[in-house]
Design goal:
Four copies of one chain form a homotetramer. Chain A has 13 helices and 14 strands. Chain A has about 400 residues and is an alpha/beta fold. Chain A has a seven-stranded mixed sheet with strand order 2-10-9-8-5-3-4, with helices on both faces. Chain A starts with 8 loop residues before the first strand and ends in a 10-residue tail after the last helix. The interface between A and B is large, with 54 and 54 residues.
Chain lengths: ~400, ~400, ~400, ~400
């Protein structure tokens, strides 16, 4: 048996590995959250967030998990009895829907097979049918972490526009932000939900709402009781770099560092890197003779790859063996695909050799667990990188 | 002018200084939150929390500020139109009341002058009048961080019992837990609210609800919509060491370390230390010829001391000068006492010399700001410590 | 071009990657080096070192590079004009010889081709010829970091014994200690030289001399002037856990942690892991159709593998390309083999996936640099691990 | 009894407390010490050192304790039989002399009473007598850490010049550099010896020699065997940012940060801060009715204050009680003054409130240990700071 010595390969689709720079930033002594020094930090991260969400409008930062930011989007803009349109892209879309359910929202949930993104045409059709504009919001998960499918947000915006529908457009970017190209303002998104522990490379504990003027107006008109998640007081107090309740200062130190790192690399290079890593990962899966869960070429996720196990093989048994023998964590199948898929994360702090080390573990694990496959996956991924380096690897764009 | 070199003296009443051991624990690489390794961590901190709250019942841990745990206590147990009894002990009691207001709760707010804790007799009287048992909950702040008064929770429990009233008893211990003696089970508290950044010596970002069987039953019956704060799913999934949404793993590393540190010192010694520091601080204030805001001897806070400025002197101007000259942060007056008091924190990681260094800064600052006072405060605090060491200093108990 | 994002793959043969646990230990606040608390630390690491060197005799710890411990071995035991026997195993043996030269020691330097360890038979022959016992010491490098050849220390001890020669036996284990099986007492070594930044997984800055009774006696008799490196005062003061001059306290924190980690894994498992990694690395080199510098099967290093470049290809140009494209550091050729070899480190904190990631970078780099080779090295290394896991991979022992 | 909770007050005269910024810098992952990235670091710290020593000539950096840099100064410039002139300022001057003794140097040791710095007049007299210029070097300790007396280096330079003597001038600044004004070039020093763990605020483990052209020439001519400490190869390889043997990379990270911090504050402000702290400390000692060991007003150390115990009171018993009761480390008396003095460090990361907290502990400890004294020391120190802030406190200059 192999030992657990050495660096663990954390290749779940988030929380992603936290860079040393960020861990060190988080470890700084805490300061007075009502001081001028804090206000400088607060303003810097609040402004910095706008550059990541690509918006000129406010981004609010909650001390909470991403789940909290889902709830915030709902309770600020919707009321019991309101109708919204959502698309069943996978487990996380389903969870977001459940939150809406709990708050008495009627969800028109376009069914899905968990193997592709949300269908812009289907959304357009539903909206076109809704002549009375009963639908208050369209709510879509950008990158469905449970399936590795990335919905085409720009296309969905176009669909909404084509239908001439006034619904708010709310997008969950928890696992895509800062890994996949995303444009809150340009794509006309009204509320962008996100979290800290994926592309931002931070520990979990911060979540975000980027808010359009239209969403802000909806919030002002909305009477659903709320306090912790309320945008109004948050935005008002944020203007001075402060927060209405004690902020998670140490995580804000990390956020400042993360934003700096992303801009040092350049967001476009960050996005290209994720595309390159994901394409190499899919090349490996193909070489193994296994199937990627996502079936739409244009919607493969740049941040994770979900792999279907051959029939009668349990993904969790496989993951357990791989963890014990090779010190690597892979993501489990969730919800409908529990036991049927495993997920390889390649997001945030990830580069070619980190991924190739991980793929080596996946491949050796397949052998150790007796999962039928062809070898050569790592070699195929290497070939992809070499071709990409030589400028020969076309990269699918998701937009 | 003095420089800002060297260690900053952070003597606000929270966030309290984070010990190096805890900062290092928080800086560990993140792990898979669905792994067996995580489950061990989760179980350890969930069990450990019970020893700090002194309860055998579940304690839930939220990734949020303490404000979130206030909201959680409300939305799990109360519904719009319900009546609760609260006591105006200061700014934070007022804020908690505002949250209740936002959720449509009718608050009977016993007025207070911000210079003492909640009055058990007044509570008993109100409850005795409430023959129809319309009051669903009594909600009290244990340590009012804005005033430095500590309410006598055991006495309030007796008051509720004396009135024979079935109301839930909910107590905010955000700034008292792990600094001031507290006993969730023994004192018959139904919901204890707390946070990470005070006596637990952690960064902000975790909050807590300790939940009695009666509160849990109320929660099951309660129909107020809720999701993020819902106890039911949290407690169910906590049973296996996991959380219903991504936990703030790095803060949980710190929580594990904090609980270990508290037990290494011994909770009773922790409480005695805070009493000793607070008494020394009050001795200094008395020597300066200034007044402590809290006027009830039995209710002086062990975690902070709020000091009244002489008339026509602005506390914030004084704090600014003291910060610039002596590199020390003091707490500002909040709400009704803004500008009229400053607050000296002596909680969490604090010992005799840290406090004496801080009191030196306070005393020199008074001189620098031209605030009328007598010198000799630091000397008085030293005398208190010497007397305490010799066993001659009676320490007021708050219970 | 690829970016430098993500974790750097540091695969030079030392300094080896420093585990997070050790980095955190080093980051603790410093303490009084004359306190009882320090004495406990001092005693613990001094005793702990004995378990790593496998000796019951003193191990002294210098605040210095390993080079200092080389010098210490010489100045404590030898005098100008003394003769010693050394073996030219590579660059580091040559450097150690140069230090002896500088101190006026006559070195009989058995020539070598840098492709194997020291020859026990040659040593026996020289010693047998030295009937007058002019040779005061036999000095050998255990693991020649410049070539990847490991000398057989037990066999050399037998050679000395077979020659019936009283020379001191001094061994440099700078790059082998805590990675390769080593037994100071059992193998009759008189002075073992070592350093912190290889198998001990620490930063550079500590070096070691393990000292036999015979060496200690030689030191007492030796008149060569010395102070910093002098064993006598060091050992005397070490008895109480202290040091004759200010110790590198923070590195001692790390040393304590390193010793704990080695025993948690178990030294035999540590050694087996290094053997397994090295064998996999050689399997990769063979698959590439390249040659390992070391030509003696019984002497392949478990800590690094030196790879010969094909004629007319520059190793440093290759390393530069590989670093820029794939964010991996490989070791350069040193001295006689500069430009002709590159070295792959697999020591200290290293496991299967870390090595496979590194080998991926080596293989892609060979392609990028236009170095003639066959692909399939990573695949061969994976096969080696799978065979080892199945119990089918015989591992060469070096002893 | 008081607990050991909370921050330890480390007030020995070095190692001084390490700032969090520096601890975090040291905790960065290690890099290849032969890489271009390292060369940039190497050049930056080598150049940066020049700004701290105030020299345009090379400063070499050893991975060693300061003791090593003492030895380096000797073995590079002197040979057995050479005569040097030293002054017995205290324990550390005596230790440096012992090293010279061990290397066969004849030391003319001007006797001293450990209560003042080296006497420029006495040095001038000896040099004037030495018409044959037998004296090869004048060796003086700038700040005698054992006594708290600071020798006047500029005046000694004038004395050497007045005597028209060609001797090298070698100065130990281990405990003064970066705390006390020092000018290698301007004051015509030939070799400046220093260490990392005092004014540079680093852990122990780095030491320094700043080298004049004249000293470098002496080194070239000197035949005393040496290797580790040899300047020639060091300076040659330093030119490219590298080192002749593995450097203590993590400490160099810290050195880079320390130099940055010193320049952010400004060296003159750093020096003034130390003067201010030391004067306040002496004010406290005077108020206690105790005597400072140093008897020369012009030579009081800005980095530590040695305090004489009243007759028949043991300083170490006092220090033990103070440590146990108040969690503060004070320096012990060394050598001739063992048990007779205790030393208060106020160097490196130290500010007003840190010192006042420490002085509180000293004062309460005096009471607890039954040492005859007057109270009021802390108050006197506070008054000094207030006067200094008001511009009324004349500060003695040492030059």
């Amino acid at each position: 048996m192999m030992s657990a010595q050495g660096r663990h390969f954390l290749h779940i689709p988030g929380p992603s590995p936290i860079p040393d720079r960020i861990l060190r930033a988080i470890g700084m002594p805490i300061i007075d959250h009502r001081s001028a020094e804090f206000a400088r930090l607060g303003k810097e991260v609040l402004e910095g967030c706008k550059t990541i969400f690509k918006t000129s409008r406010p981004v609010v930062i909650y001390p909470s998990s991403g789940t909290g930011a889902w709830e915030a989007a709902i309770v600020n803009t919707l009321s019991p009895g309101d109708t919204v349109l959502m698309a069943e892209t996978g487990h996380f879309a389903t969870l977001w829907k459940q939150i809406a359910d709990r708050f008495g929202i009627k969800v028109d949930f376009i069914p899905g097979d968990w193997r592709r993104g949300a269908d812009p045409a289907a959304i357009e059709a539903r909206l076109a049918e809704d002549r009375g504009h009963a639908i208050k919001a369209v709510m879509v998960v950008h990158n469905e972490t449970s399936t590795g499918s990335t919905s085409r947000i720009a296309a969905i915006r176009q669909a909404i526009d084509a239908a001439g529908h006034p619904a708010l457009f709310m997008v969950d970017t928890i696992s895509s932000l800062a890994s996949v190209d995303y444009r809150h303002d340009e794509w006309g998104v009204d509320v962008t939900v996100s979290g800290s522990q994926k592309g931002l490379m931070l520990p979990p504990g911060l979540s975000f709402n980027a808010i359009s003027e239209k969403a802000m107006a909806a919030s002002k008109a909305n009477t659903l009781p709320r306090s912790y998640w309320d945008w109004q007081e948050m935005v008002k107090i944020n203007a001075n770099g402060f927060f209405p309740y004690t902020p998670a200062t140490n995580l804000l130190y990390g956020l400042k560092e993360a934003i700096a790192m992303l801009h040092e690399e350049g967001l476009d290079r960050v996005f290209a890197r994720h595309q390159r890593l994901a394409a190499a990962c899919r090349a490996a899966v193909a070489a193994w003779g296994l199937d990627v869960l996502c079936q739409n070429e244009a919607e493969h996720s740049p941040v994770l790859t979900a792999v279907l196990m051959p029939p009668s093989h349990d993904a969790d048994a496989y993951r357990k063996i791989t963890l014990e023998k090779y010190n690597i964590s892979l993501g489990s199948g969730l919800g409908k695909v529990a036991g049927k898929v495993f997920r390889i994360g390649h997001l945030g702090e990830c580069n070619e050799l980190m991924l190739l080390g991980a793929l080596s573990g996946v491949e050796m694990g397949l052998a150790a667990a007796g999962v039928p496959h062809r070898s050569g996956g790592v070699a195929a991924a290497m070939q992809h990188f070499e071709a990409a380096d030589a400028g020969n690897a076309p990269v699918a764009a998701v937009a």
